[in-house]
Amino acid sequence: MDTSSIPHEHIIEEKYMNRFFQVLKSGIDRTRTAISVIFLSVSDIREQKEEEVTVFLEKKIRLSDVLCKLEAPFQWCLILSQSGEEEACAFLNRLFSNESFREDFSFSASVVEIGNSYAEFEKVVEKGRTSLDVALQSGAGHIEYVKDFKKKNLVHIKVSILEENDILRNVIQTSLEDLKIDGFQLEIRTFQDGYDFLNSNWYLSSHPHVMIMNDILPRKNGLEVLHTVRHLPNNKKFIVFMMTQRNSEEDMVYAYESGVDQYLVKPFSLRLFEAQIKRVFERFWS
């Protein structure tokens, strides 16, 4: 089939790759999801088949991905949105195992995972092309991986502990300070009362915010505080742990319906609490 005249709706010129890279990279901090840049080469093929490979790749990418035919012969660059190294590898394995192309084409590739917003496109290209050369020298079907840009930006999380009891408040604070959670930096403040918390400016920023609070507090109790924060425009930033001695089904249902994310019945296991905290971080910000 003659594919030379087929228009390519999803392929951009090499000179515009940096612009698309910046757009996709800007969402990494918000979504906590990496992107991957793939440098792909095909060898041992006839020149007239280069366009056929381009058409093949264009059909395989998603609408959210970017494909570029590089100026170098038989080389392409793909940017896969919201896809880390593992997803990029699976994508390439599907390409390499395609029956209709395996006999005619010999693929080699390098994969660069971008896990942070400060990676520079020029350095990504430099590392990716160098690794592609290594992959080509290593033989057909070989994939090289670049690790230089995988490290994620630190996510700053605010943590508020609302508890009247000094001992319990200090125990929870110490437990959180001792937690080892890669990629996160916790900024912890404690409050003896819900009134003090609501009269501070601490909870009004846009930062993700974990709240651990007792349901019974002087002046403003936990449910009143919960009602206030759940009516803020950006209330989804709050993850609320409610500590209580009430363990009836009705009390739990009411708390969850009011906006509680985790319900801790006193006395609760500190190890279980730490596991729940880690799970929350993995679920919402990893």
Descriptive report:
The two termini are 45 Å apart. The protein is 38% helix and 23% strand. It folds into two domains: 11-146, Alpha-Beta Plaits; 155-285, 3-Layer(aba) Sandwich (Rossmann fold). A six-stranded mixed beta sheet has the order 1-3-4-2-5-6, sandwiched between helices. A five-stranded parallel beta sheet has the order 8-7-9-10-11, sandwiched between helices. With 286 residues, it is an alpha/beta fold. Strand 9, helix 9 (222-229) and strand 10 (238-244) form a beta-alpha-beta unit. It is built from eleven helices and eleven strands. Keywords: Phosphoprotein. This is Response regulatory domain-containing protein.
Describe how the helices and strands are arranged.
Layout: E1 11-12, H1 17-25, H2 28-31, E2 35-43, H3 50-60, E3 66-69, E4 75-80, H4 85-96, H5 99-102, E5 106-114, H6 121-138, E6 143-146, E7 155-162, H7 166-178, E8 184-191, H8 194-198, E9 209-214, H9 222-229, E10 238-244, H10 249-258, E11 262-265, H11 270-285
Parallel strand pairs: 1-3, 5-6, 7-8, 7-9, 9-10, 10-11
Antiparallel strand pairs: 2-4, 2-5, 3-4
Jot down its keywords.
single chain, Alpha-Beta Plaits, Rossmann fold, six-stranded mixed β-sheet, five-stranded parallel β-sheet, 11 strands, 23% strand, elongated
Can I get a quick summary?
With 286 residues, the chain is α/β, with parallel strands linked by helices.
* Strand/helix succession: EHHEHEEHHEHEEHEHEHEHEH
**Gyration radius, rounded:** 26 Å
Given the structure, what is the number of helices? Answer: 11
CATH architecture of the largest domain: 2-Layer Sandwich
Please state how the strands of the largest beta sheet are arranged side by side: 1-3-4-2-5-6
Query: Based on DSSP secondary structure assignment, what is the total number of beta strands?
Result: 11
Q: What is the CATH class of the largest domain?
A: Alpha Beta
Amount of beta strand: 15-25%
- What is the assigned CATH homologous superfamily of the largest domain? Reverse transcriptase/Diguanylate cyclase domain
